[in-house]
Specification:
This protein is α/β, with parallel strands linked by helices and 698 residues long. 41% of the residues lie in helices and 16% in strands. The chain is globular, with a radius of gyration of 33 Å.
C-alpha cells in the first residue's frame, strides 16, 4: 500500500499543510526549524499502535481543537496483489483500489474511509467470527439442558482470537470439553462434529465484524494496514568493543559504557553490527579459546559484513575484519581495497576520520534495522539520513534509499542538494516556516517557495547559476535565456555559432543554459521565467521531451517559447542529428580508434549505423556499443564526441564538417531566431511582470 496524498492539521507547528501529493521516493527540503521532522512524525500517527499526546496539538488552534479535527489523513493506493486479496475475501463488494486513513483528536483509533459503497446493516449471513459465535451459542441452546449447563462458552463470548494458533487451541479445548460432557449423547456429538469440521468455519475464512463495513475495516486493520517506520537516531561505532559490557547491556544490566577505551552510549549499534555479520555470541564463546576455529568463525562473519556494506559504499571498497583480542575485546579493523588489488590503510575504525566513522555507522545501523524488520511495503521515514556525510558518500546513501524504494515507500528530510534525486513534484516537497505566524507550509509546487528555502534545490538544478537566477535585476535586464536539456546541446550551440560566423542568426544575443537533467528542465525554466528572464526552451523531439513540452504549456509557457529539434519537417531525436552522418562518424572514428585499439575497434561507416534502424545517430551508435559489450567497448558516451567536435572548431581544424552540416545548423538557428522574434512581438511588460513573485520572500 503506497501513500499518494496526505494532509496534516493542528499538529505542533503545522496549522494546515493542505493536500499534498507524494511519490515513492520523496525528499522534504527546508531550512532548520521549518517543520520537516514534524511532518514525518505526524505521519507516524497513522500507525495502528501510535498514541497522540495533548502536548503535540497546536497551541494556536485551541478553539478549533474543541471540536473534531483530523490531525492527519492519508490516501493510499492498493497494489494489484492487495486488490486481489480484498476481492478474494469480499467478493460481493465493488473493487477497492484506494483507502483513506485518518486520525482525529477525539478518537484514539485510526479510522478508515472507502471510495465504494458498503452495507452497514447487520448481516447474519456474513462469514464472520461474530456470526460463527452466534451459530455455536445457538446450537448449544438446542442440546439437552443438563449438558448445556456444564459447557464453558467463554471462548465464544470473547473478542475474536488474534491468530490461527489461538483459534485452534480454543476450538480444540472447547471440543474436548464438549466430547467429555456429551459422551452419552452420540447424536449431540455428531451434530457438533459437523459444525467443528465444516470448511466454512476455519479461522482463515472467518472475518471480524457484524456488517460489511466493520468486517472490511477489521480485515484491513489486521492484514493490510500500512506501516510507518521512523528513523532519526544514527549512533556511532568505534574501534574496540568490550564484549563483557555488551553482554551485560544485552541482558538488561545498566553499564556506563560497552566500548573499550572509547565512549559509546548504547549497545544497539553493536547489536546491528553483529546482526549484519550473522555473528552469534554464544557460538563465539564456544570457540574463542581455540584460535583456528575462532579465526575461521570471524573471517566468515567479516566477509558477510563486508559484502553487505560495500554496495552502499562509494569510492574504493573497504574490507572489515572482526578480530578477537585478550580481555574479551572485539576489534573492528578497516582496510581500503584498491582496484589493482592492493590493500592499504589497515587499522582500527577509531583511527579513521569522524566522517568515515559516521558513514560506516550509519550504513551499519540503517542496513541492519531495515533487514531485521524484513521491510516490505512499509513507508520509511528518515530524518536527515545524510547528516555529516561527504557528497560522494551521500550518493552511496542514495543508492541504499533507491534500493529500498523498490519494495517500500521512502520519505526523508534533507538539507543537501546531493540527496535530491528527482525534481518531479511529489517526489520533491518544500517545507517553509512562516516567520510572522511561526507555522509550517508545505509546497507541492516547490518553485513557489522562498529563494532561501530553495537554495539546495537550485544548486541541484543549476549549480553554478544560483546567484544569477535569484538576482531579479539581472533577469529583467539580461539577454533572453534558452534552456537546453544537456551540456552537449549547449556546447554545440556555442561552438557552431563561432563556426558559422553569421551575425544574422547568431547565438550571441542569448544565454544558453544547460539543465542538470531532463526532469530539471521544467522547474529550471519556471525559475528563470519567474525571475524576469525572457525564457525559451530547446528540446529533443523524443517522447520524454514532448511530455516536458506539455508540462511547460500547462505552466503558462507559450508554444512559441518551446522549440523542438526538426529539419525539413522531420523530427530529430537529438542535436547530433543536425550533423551529417559521415561528418559525425569522422569524429567517432577519430575518438575511438585510438581509445579502443586493443579491443578490436574498426572504423564505422554510414551503413553500419543506418542499418540498426534506430531513431537518430545516438540511438544507433548506442546499439552498436551494446553489441560489443563483451569486447570491453563500454558504453557509448556522446559527450566525448561533443568535446572532439567543439575542440576542433575552436582550433579551426574542423575541415571534416561539410557545408551541409553547416546549413543544417543554420536552419536550427533560424528557427530559434524566428521564435524569439515572434515572442517579443506579442509579449508585453505586463505579461512578464505577473510571473515575478515577491522577491523578498524567504
Amino acid at each position: 500500500m503506497r501513500l499518494r496524498k496526505f494532509r496534516v492539521r493542528a499538529y505542533r507547528c503545522i496549522h494546515d499543510s493542505g493536500e499534498i501529493t507524494v511519490g515513492d521516493l520523496a525528499a522534504f527540503v527546508g531550512r532548520n526549524e521549518s517543520g520537516k521532522t514534524t511532518i514525518l512524525q505526524a505521519l507516524t500517527l497513522l500507525n495502528k499502535d501510535e498514541s497522540i499526546s495533548d502536548l503535540d496539538l497546536c497551541d494556536e488552534m485551541s478553539e478549533e481543537l474543541k471540536g473534531e479535527i483530523r490531525l492527519v489523513e492519508g490516501e493510499f493506493e492498493l497494489s494489484t496483489n492487495e486488490i486481489n486479496i480484498v476481492r478474494e475475501r469480499f467478493p460481493a463488494i465493488p473493487k477497492l483500489t484506494k483507502i483513506k486513513l485518518f486520525r482525529d483528536n477525539k478518537n484514539p483509533r485510526v479510522q478508515y474511509e472507502f471510495d465504494i459503497h458498503l452495507n452497514e446493516d447487520e448481516n447474519r449471513e456474513l462469514n464472520s467470527w461474530e456470526n460463527f459465535s452466534r451459530q455455536i451459542l445457538g446450537f448449544l441452546d438446542t442440546i439437552p439442558n443438563h449438558i448445556r449447563i456444564q459447557i464453558d462458552t467463554t471462548f465464544f463470548e470473547s473478542p475474536p482470537p488474534k491468530n490461527q494458533k489461538m483459534f485452534d487451541e480454543g476450538m480444540a479445548e472447547f471440543s474436548n470439553q464438549f466430547h467429555m460432557v456429551s459422551a452419552q449423547e452420540p447424536r449431540v456429538v455428531e451434530a457438533w462434529e459437523k459444525i467443528y469440521n465444516s470448511p466454512e468455519n476455519q479461522f482463515s475464512n472467518l472475518l471480524s465484524g457484524v456488517n460489511e463495513r466493520i468486517a472490511l475495516e477489521n480485515f484491513i486493520s489486521e492484514e493490510l494496514h500500512p506501516r510507518f517506520v521512523y528513523f532519526s537516531d544514527y549512533k556511532k561505532i568505534y574501534g574496540n568493543i568490550n564484549l563483557d559490557e555488551y553482554l551485560r547491556e544485552e541482558s538488561g544490566e545498566q553499564t556506563s559504557s560497552i566500548e573499550y577505551v572509547e565512549e559509546f552510549d548504547k549497545a544497539e549499534t553493536v547489536r546491528n553490527l553483529f546482526y549484519l555479520a550473522e555473528l552469534n555470541m554464544k557460538e563465539l564463546d564456544v570457540v574463542k579459546e581455540t584460535p583456528s576455529k575462532c579465526i575461521k568463525l570471524l573471517n566468515t562473519a567479516s566477509n558477510r559484513l563486508t559484502n553487505k556494506l560495500n554496495p552502499a559504499w562509494k569510492g574504493d571498497p573497504i574490507h572489515v575484519d572482526l578480530r578477537y583480542n585478550p580481555g574479551n575485546i572485539m576489534s573492528i579493523v578497516i582496510s581500503d581495497i584498491h582496484r589493482d588489488g592492493t590493500v592499504t590503510n589497515t587499522g582500527l575504525l577509531n583511527r579513521r576520520a569522524e566522517g568515515f566513522k559516521w558513514t560506516f555507522s550509519f550504513i551499519v545501523n540503517f542496513a541492519a534495522e531495515t533487514q531485521r524488520a524484513e521491510l516490505k511495503e512499509a513507508i520509511l521515514l528518515l530524518d536527515e539520513p545524510a547528516r555529516n556525510l561527504h557528497p560522494t558518500q551521500q550518493m552511496g546513501i542514495s543508492d541504499l534509499l533507491k534500493n529500498l524504494a523498490g519494495s517500500n515507500q521512502v520519505l526523508y528530510a534533507t538539507h543537501s542538494p546531493f540527496m535530491i534525486f528527482d525534481y518531479t513534484p511529489g517526489n520533491l516537497l518544500v517545507v517553509e516556516l512562516d516567520n510572522r505566524k511561526h507555522l509550517s507550509r508545505i509546497f507541492y509546487d516547490y518553485w513557489n517557495a522562498g529563494d532561501k528555502t530553495l537554495t539546495p534545490i537550485l544548486y541541484g538544478l543549476s549549480r553554478g547559476l544560483v546567484e544569477s537566477i535569484i538576482d531579479r535585476e539581472i533577469g529583467t535586464n539580461s539577454r533572453p535565456v534558452i534552456i537546453v536539456e544537456t551540456m552537449s546541446d549547449a556546447m554545440y550551440l556555442n561552438a557552431f555559432d563561432k563556426f558559422l560566423q553569421d551575425p544574422n542568426i547568431s547565438m550571441n544575443p542569448l544565454n544558453v543554459v544547460a539543465a542538470y537533467s531532463k526532469n530539471s528542465v521544467l522547474p529550471l525554466a519556471i525559475f528563470y521565467r519567474n525571475h524576469g528572464y525572457r525564457t525559451f526552451i530547446l528540446l529533443d523531439n523524443s517522447g520524454e521531451s514532448k511530455q516536458i513540452s506539455a508540462q511547460l504549456v500547462s505552466n503558462e509557457f507559450s508554444p512559441t517559447q518551446i522549440i523542438l529539434f526538426e529539419l525539413e519537417g522531420n523530427k530529430l531525436e537529438s542535436i547530433e542529428d543536425y550533423i551529417v552522418l559521415e561528418d559525425y562518424l569522422h569524429a567517432v572514428n577519430q575518438t575511438f580508434e585510438i581509445k579502443l585499439r586493443h579491443e578490436g575497434y574498426s572504423s564505422l561507416g554510414p551503413q553500419d549505423v543506418s542499418s540498426r534502424g534506430g531513431n537518430g545517430i545516438l540511438e544507433n551508435l548506442k546499439a552498436i556499443w551494446r553489441e560489443h559489450r563483451e569486447d570491453d567497448w563500454g558504453v557509448f558516451e556522446n559527450e566525448e564526441i561533443t568535446r572532439y567536435v567543439c575542440e576542433k572548431i575552436y582550433l579551426e581544424e574542423a575541415g571534416f564538417l561539410s557545408d551541409k552540416t553547416k546549413d543544417q545548423f543554420r536552419t536550427l538557428y533560424r528557427l530559434i531566431a524566428e521564435r524569439i522574434r515572434q515572442y517579443e512581438n506579442v509579449a508585453s511588460r505586463t505579461h512578464l511582470d505577473r510571473f515575478q513573485k515577491a522577491g523578498s520572500r524567504g
